[in-house]
Structure formats: C-alpha cells, structure tokens
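Record format v2
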Amino acid sequence: MSEHQEQEMEGGLSRRQFVSAGAAVAVGAVLAPGVFLHSVAQARSPAEGASNYQRWGLLIDTNKCRTGCDDCVSACKKENGWGNEQVRDEQKVQWIRKVDLKEHHTGREVSLPMMCQHCAEPPCVDVCPTGASFKRADGIVLVDKHICIGCRYCMMACPYKARSFVHEDVIHGDAYMPRGKGTVESCTLCVHRVDKGQNPACVESCKEKAMTFGDLNDPKSEIAQRVSQYATRQIRADLKLNPGVRYEGI
Amino acid sequence: MTAQHALRAFLTLVLAGWVTASAVAEVAHPVIPKGKGERCVADTSVMRRNHMQLLKHQRDETMHNGIRTERFSLVGCMNCHAYVNSQPVSIKDERHFCNVCHQYAAVKIDCFECHASTPQPVSAAVAPEAHP
Amino acid sequence: MKVLDYSEIEGRSGSYIGWLALLGVFLALGGAAALTMEHYGHAITGMNNQVVWGMPHVFAVFLIVAASGALNVASIASVFGKSFYKPLAPLSGLLAIALLVGGLAVLVLDLGRPDRLIVAMTYYNFKSIFAWNIILYTGFIAVVYVYLWMMMERRFNAHTKKAGVAAFSWRLILTTGTGSIFGFLVARSAYDTALMAPMFIIMSLAFGTAIYLVTIIAAYRWTGRELGFSVIARLRSLLGTFVAAVLLIVAIYHLTNLYITQKHDVERFILADGGVYTALFWVGQVFIGGVLPLWLCWHKRWQSSVTATVVASLFVVLGGLAQMYVIIIGGQVLPLEMFPGFDVTSGFSDGQVARYTPSVYELFLGLGGVAIAGLVVSVGVKILRFLPVSLADSAVDPHVKSAAGKQ
C-alpha cells in the first residue's frame, strides 16, 4: 500500500517538476530576466532581500520517517555546529530532535523530527522584549543573537519546545553558524543555505526523502501542491499559529 | 590652601597625566598587519572611522532582511584581514588585525564570542555578488 | 491629631553594624554567584532547556510582587484617606522601592547576557508584556520616589494625594503586568489564564503587608522606639484578610482547571501526584502560607501576641515563596502537550516531567536580592526621616481609648 502510494507520488512529482520547469522556461522566454529568476523562486541575488512573496515551509511525511534514524539531526548538528556541548543532558542544545509517538488505544507508532515550526504568528516573537526574536519577510523565524539578552521568555512561550539556551561557552568548529553563550537559538531553516538557493541540511540528508522544503506561496512548488492535495497536520493547530512546518501521516 | 596652590596642584596633575599618556603611546604603537587583498572595500580613512557602523548596518541587513552582499560582511573582512605574514590567525593571537587596534584603544569587542575570527572556507561564504 | 515627629535612626550600635555586615555577607555571596554564573554560563545552575526559569525567578518575582504590595500601607493613607496609616506611609514607600530594586537586580543578573542591559533599554518590542514590565518596574521606582518626596517635604504635602493615586494606579498595573508574564503564555496549560493578573495583585497585598509588619516591628524593637499595639493589630487584621483572599483565588484557579478536562493533567500533578510540587502546594503554600497565618491572625488565643503576628508574617513570606516555586517551576516541569492521544518519547524528555534541582548559585543570587532590599531599607532609615519617633497608641490614634475598649 505504502509502496504503491510512494510510486504514485514520485510519478506525480516528476510530472510536476517537468511541468514547472517547462513553465519556467516559457515564462523566461517572454519576460525580463529578473522576473524569470523570481519565478524559479530559489535563486536570488545576494543584494536582494527576503520578501513576503515567499513563505518557506517544510512538509514532513511521517510515513517515510524511520524510527531510530536521526540522519536529519546529525546533518543539522554538522551544518550548524551544535551537539558538542559538555553539559548535562537537559541543558544540551536541541535545534531538531526525533520524537516517537505511540497511539494510546491502537498502539500505532509514528516517528518524526520536531524543530522550530516557523509559525506565521509566532508566540516567541510576541513575547520577546527586545525584538531579538523575529520573523523574516519570507516566514523564517530567527533569533537576532546580537540583541538577545538571554531572558528565555521565548522558551517559555514556545509550544513546541523548539528553542534552546546556550548554557556554556561555545566550542567553535568548522560550522558557519555563529553561536554564543547566554543567547537563545533554534532551527533557522538553514537560512544561510536557503538564501543561496539550497535546501536545508536536514532535507538534503534524509535518505527516505521524507522532508520536502519549498515555497508555500508558490502554487507550482512541490510543497504547495502536496499540502493542497493531501491531508497534512499542523501541530497544535488549536493555537492557530499557522506553522510553516506540516506533517503527513500522524 | 590658597588659589595659587590649588592651581599649581591642578597643573601638576594635568602635566603628569599628559606625560604618562605620551609615554604609553610611544611604547605600544599598534603594528597593523597587511590585508591579503589588493585594496580594502573602502578608503582606509573611512574604514578607520566608520567600520563599526558599516558592520552593524550590514549585520542588521543580513540578519533581518537576508541581504548577503559581501562588501561589508564580517566574513569578507576576515577572509582578507585575518592573516599575519600570510598565515591565518585567530582573535586569540595578539597580532590579529582587530586585536592590535582594539587593544591599543582599549575598546572591548564581543563579535568573536560567536563569529569566526579566521578566514572561512569558500563553502561557508556567500555566493559572489552580482555586479550591477 | 497632633503632628508626628520623624527622625533618622541613630545607627551607631554594634548590633546595627552587625546587621549591615550580615546583609553585606549575603550581598557579597549574591554578587559572587552572579559573577560565577556569568563566567561559566548557566551550565552551573540547575536551570536547563526544559525548566528555563529557576530559583532566581522565584525570588525575583516574589520580591517584585511584594514590592507593589508593600506600598499598600501608604496607599491606604493617601488614596483612601485613612489618617491612621499616615505615619506608616514613608516606610511603606521605602520598602516598596527596596524590594523592587532587590527583585530587579536578581532578574537582571540572571539574564544570559547581563552585559547587554543597555539593549533591553534601547530595543523595545511593545507587543511583549516583558518589555512593558521593564518600563513598569523602572517607572515604579520613579513614581514612588516622587510620592515619597511629596510626602516627606512639608511644602509639597498638598500634592501627596495626587502622587499617591498615581503610585497606587501604577502598582496595580505593575502587578497586572507581572502576573500577565505568566497569564499570556498560551503554550503552557498551567498558565494561559487571565486569572494570573488578579491572583498576583492579591498575592502582592498579602506578601507586602507581611514584609511590612516584620520590618516595622523589627525597626521599632531594635531601635527601642515605642510601637503601639493598635498599629500591629490593624495591620494584622489586614494581613488576615489578604491571606484569606489569596486562598480564595487559588481555590477558584484550581476549581476552574478541574472543570476543564484539558487541564486535568496539570491539576493531577499539582494537587495529587507531583511529588515535591504537590508537597510545596499543600504544606508550603496552603498550610504554612495560608491556614497557619489565618489561625495566628484571627484566633482569640493569639490576639495580644506580637510574636504570633511576626510568626504569621514570616509564614506568609515562606508560603509565598513556596507558591512562587509551584507557579514558576511547577508550571514548567509539566510536559508540553503536542500530540494528544499519543504516548510521546524522545531524547529530549518529551512526554516526561522535567527535572530541576536548584544550585547554590541560584539560591545565593536570590538571597542577594533579599540582602539588597534589606540594605536599602536599613541604610535608608538611617539617612532620611522615614520612621516616626513614636508610634505609641496615643501618638497615632486619637480614639485609642475607645479602640482599645472594643478589643
């Protein structure tokens, strides 16, 4: 059953990819080069800022996510340079974590990665006294560590336990991401990669292709098409935060 | 104490302070390591006076708006300046480009508690800026 | 009513110096704790990524809440026009500022980046109740300062009422803001209720009055000044009323939660099987902080005992700290409910009750805040005329005879 579904989806995907590539070429042939770049979404020049034409999102298919696999977590650690803390377990940094679920009555098991859900109405941004916690125009929720005073109110406000406080001096490795003691941090959706037109590290690392990254505002994108065709779930939808991360198959 | 005495004491203090300051200046004049590139992104006089504003402006543009031009980026600075005698050095080294002046002027910076103070591999740097 | 004389305390005795030295020791320990925490980071504390606010916040929020309550005595005099409380008002203002400064110091020194305090003053997100509180706390000090000035400078006495109304309004808003720090947290089922604001206001009245009672009795005992029993009796009856009100609103809070099925997990945890949190709730908050003080304030047996009043006040303080611990820590250790209907496990203790053991650093930081408040009051009464020379019954109450007769 699931194999059949997968095949069907893959078939659908490649067909869509083909169609969208064709559309892009067609548009490019007609319109100015700048507009052409815009329509293939991901590549923009470094001088061009993030815009609200886009809403970056992540779709996680829990049917494909394997229990016990934490490739996405390892990839995130490597990319962003966390995970080598010398502190107690409860104080360790968690940008992304694997969560295993078991339904009370049926015993059905689900495994999924949890990270910042990049809400459209983020409570962490509402409560931050200095505005260090903010949402970029393209929907990515970030902490500006330059003005974070380390009060941790955002961690109190986050319904997903997605934020971590850096409890000790950071041992800087090769990772690009600047991190420092006494500030709060969380998944950035690999904003530095997204700005270069690349996928987040977790998405790249997933061998099962359980994670799809893309622009929810672009009707032609794979993620937008899938959320419009299949039932997906927002975690804590009751809070009406409109998260950018959605789950399939919970 | 008469006014004359007070004036004399005051002048002595001022003179002593001036002599001490000039003595210090003579002892530890900063030796600024040469950058790797041919020329800086702006004139030296501009950079000396305004580098903090330029960096802060760039910081806010990048952080909040996702603008990742290279000209005034800290990574860009380090890729050119974090060398002494063509060898990469970190902020822990007294001869580091930022250190020499900041220690001389006794201005503490905390940039490198989080940011890398050494040249960054190409993969970490942003895509080259498109020339208009 | 005759004009009362105020005077500075002499402040030369060995025991006064010894008292300052004791507070100084706690101040130094608090300072050392703050420096150590800043140097090593919060890794050395018991706080972690599940319980992000710990012992420092218990002390800080307690002190800040008590600060606004300590002003109550002054408000009764200038806002509600009860002349009996007028001689008690200057100390009330001083105590309010002292407690607030102590609490604020703890809060600030616990920040991850206390060196960036200037950022907190220059960048504001006005949707954040925390940002509002920064203004409310600093503003409170300024407003109470002006209030004290109007009160203590004879030429400005005519403006005391205006300043008093301003300070009274400000303190109500301040405590509303403090309670709302928790009330506005939609994510956590122990908070997320507008009841937090009125609950904090009523708590502030109880804590502030208790601390005021202890302070004024100590000040008059230690300086050998006369303190009439009518002052103690009136404040004690206020304390009893406030403690009863706290018990009532706590009962309403829990009854409401018990009615809401979604909140049953919280209630089961706090009221029944939360271990140390359940013990702190029933023994600390309800029994020591509520039932015992009520008995000591209201029972005939203790009617003429100053000691019983002091003990009752100290119990209210202890119970208040327990209540803060239950609210702040107890509210955080509960797992966040993200997947209703599922058992949840992860490497980051999802679905489990989080652990928290306070470290000595946090305890000393908190006690350091208490020491700051103690020092501000102790030094304040030495350098300015906060205390009436006598608070004997005949000095404060023209109807003292009839009042004594009624008792």
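Residues 33-132 of chain B form one domain.
Confidence is low (pLDDT under 50) at residues 123-132 of chain B.
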